[in-house]
Sequence to fold (380 residues):
Amino acid sequence: MTLTEKLQDLRERSLLRRRRSVESACGPELVVDGRRLLAFASNDYLGLAADPALIDAAREGAGRYGVGAGASHLISGHYAPHQALEERLAAFVGMERALYFSTGFMANLGVVASLAGHNDAVFSDQLNHASLIDGIRLSGAEKYIYPHRDLAALEAMLSTCPAANKLVVSDAVFGMDGDLAPLPELLELCQRHDAHLVVDDAHGFGVQGPQGRGSLAKFGIASPRVVYIGTLGKAAGVSGAFAAGSDEVIEWLLQSARSYIFTTGAPPLLAHALLASLDLIERGDHRRAHLAQLIAQLRAGLKLKRWRLSDSATAIQPLIIGANEEALRIGAQLYESGLWIPVIRPPTVPEGTSRLRISLSAAHTPAQVERLVAALNELE
Fold:
């Protein structure tokens, strides 16, 4: 097929994506393409993206270090705030050492492709994020996909795999469903079958666990078999990501992760701002408590007959519509009424499960959530 034919095929199947231009700071109320909307669309789970303390920290960082790193970390682009951030992140998640990446996608590519290669085996949850999937492809390792959260299927695969080096990779909080991986059970399987566990906590870091220390802390997990990946552009409100683990693992990533070695370092002003963000996360129990109340309010208020709300206790509350066309129609009706909720369709989610991905933030108010509930109940 030509590109013209491929694009037309996407249009006919209601799968063509489009962008909207946001003209205001990230928050519950946004100016989008000239219109003021109430948004349930971002991953700013703690409402930190426009927090005055982080804006001030970014300004201070820019004043001290400028706006660009100038080179890769291994040339001259590793600044004092990068180093301080890595040390603080490692301590915050209870690991020996951490490595700061420019994005979460780059972190997952670098970690998986560095820890597995030809003659190795990687075991991946069916609903893992695209960055983990692409990291597996890049590694050249043998790939095993187990059904979502299916421990019995995973154990059967591990039991019969002859590879000497085995890697199990999983989201901690699944970004399109909002449910949690069975991390204690995954680690137990890894211990039994001499495998390592890579946990992508993009949607858990800052929200899950005591003081927002993440999904490992939520389950009380500490093991040298675990490599932990946290995103810093979601609940942390800024940008970037990090991998944390043993000193040996992180040193190996620094020496081998191509997505770390061969890219210009993130602006040091961002690392400076992230140090302030970690302070807010650590002291943010009131934000997490408010977010939990909003989640409960939404789930209690929706009166559904045709649609289905996913079984999620997290800030990600997917409302399963089904057909692409209906999901787009509902999303458009909400948008016209002043509510912005993203419509998620295949291939991001399985066929027949197109959905509204409702994202709640500690910056939302109960009145704003009530407005969303009323609108959805009326359309349903």
